[in-house]
Write a structure and sequence with these properties.
This protein has 351 residues and is an alpha/beta fold. The protein is built from 13 helices and ten strands. It has an eight-stranded parallel beta barrel, surrounded by five helices. It has a two-stranded antiparallel sheet with strand order 8-9.
Length: 351
């Protein structure tokens, strides 16, 4: 099996100026840089009307046609922002309101209902587009309590994850009905921010087969985690892959938490591909070893480099790391053509 790519996540590039202000124009731009697939943020009306896509197969055929006219494929849809709003701690109500439709802002129950409907619609839109995977954040109820000071009351975290599972289980069932996996991006700020928290959630959704993972090594670097061992542990659940780089250079003044500094002044910061500390040779090797055949999608975020330079450099970087799967072993030339009788004699079993 061979990883597909290079793909590019359009969220960080979409804007009001050409060529980033329409699906047709941004696809032409991506194709000119050597990308073969685009991951579409479902919240951006400049690129897709999610409600229409969830209700009309014809509209989705038109969307796919626009993308295909540039020699590209749609890799997946994303509902990161809507997924965030499935579960919001009151401390973040005002800050996250901007992710929602204007008519539900300032009304947390209405905002949550809107978000749930949006994520469910992504499942239907994905089916209309012939896609089998989609991305989202989990949202967060327990994140304000990630560091246990003051001491967390007994059962607080468990109650948060019980509620998170209660909210997501009906959504996961809709994804199952539509034949689509929802891949949670493991990310600080989400209740699902590492392997342990993902396992807590998975247990509560009864190991739901649609509750899979979006693997992004940059978020493990910034937490000081072993991003290669993470593949060994969770490869059967990894359904999507964001290719994003990062670095963590702790000093005597700051470390993982960053001292409230801006991104460029933090010990841990995102970087363009090849500028950080992720060993992508090993990442691609491990994913290939375990048979991952999904898309390798650039998610560009960098504290120093421009988006345009990051995008230009990203396509050849990903292409150079994709390993073409072989259909025979390297030492097949030395095969002896042995059969069962020969094997038994070689083992001394017939003496």
């Amino acid at each position: 099996m061979t990883i597909k790519g290079p793909g590019i996540f359009l969220a960080q590039f979409a804007g009001d100026a050409a060529p980033f202000n329409s699906l047709d124009a941004i696809c032409g731009w991506a194709a000119s840089l050597g990308y073969e697939g685009v991951q579409i943020p479902s919240w951006d009306a400049r690129l897709i009307d999610l409600v229409k896509a969830s209700e009309s197969k014809d509209y989705c055929d038109e969307i796919a046609g626009v993308v295909a006219s540039h020699g590209l494929a749609i890799t997946e849809l994303s509902a990161h922002l809507q997924g965030q709003l499935v579960a919001v701690h009151p401390a973040y109500d005002e800050l996250f309101d901007g992710f929602a439709a204007p008519d539900v802002r300032g009304n947390p129950p209405a905002r949550q209902a809107w978000a749930v409907d949006q994520v469910k619609r992504m499942a239907k839109a994905s089916r209309h587009l012939g896609l089998t995977k989609a991305a989202a954040f989990s949202g967060a109820l327990a994140w304000p309590y990630v560091y246990p000071w003051p001491q967390r009351p007994a059962g607080l975290v468990e109650a948060a994850f019980d509620e998170l599972a209660k909210r997501w289980t009906p959504i996961l069932d809709v994804f199952d009905e539509n034949g689509v996996d929802i891949c949670y991006e493991i990310h600080p700020g989400e209740d699902l921010h590492d392997g342990a928290s993902y396992e807590m959630f998975l247990e509560r959704v009864n190991n739901h087969p649609r509750a899979r993972l979006l693997y992004d090594p940059s978020h493990f670097v910034l937490q000081g985690m072993d991003y290669l061992a993470n593949i060994d542990i969770y490869h059967e659940r990894i359904g999507m892959f964001h290719v994003k780089d990062a670095e963590l250079n702790p000093t005597g003044r700051q470390g993982v938490y960053g001292g409230f500094q801006s991104w460029k002044d933090r010990a841990g910061r995102f970087r363009s591909l090849g500028d950080g500390q992720v060993d992508f040779g090993s990442v691609f090797s491990k994913l290939t070893q375990y048979g991952f055949d999904g898309w390798a999608v650039l998610e560009w975020e960098c504290a120093l480099k421009s988006a345009e330079q990051g995008a230009r450099e990203g396509a050849p970087f990903i292409a150079a790391h994709i390993i073409e799967g072989g259909d025979k072993a390297f030492d097949d030339f030395a095969g002896s053509g042995a059969d069962d009788a020969v094997n038994r004699r070689a083992l001394g079993l017939d003496r």
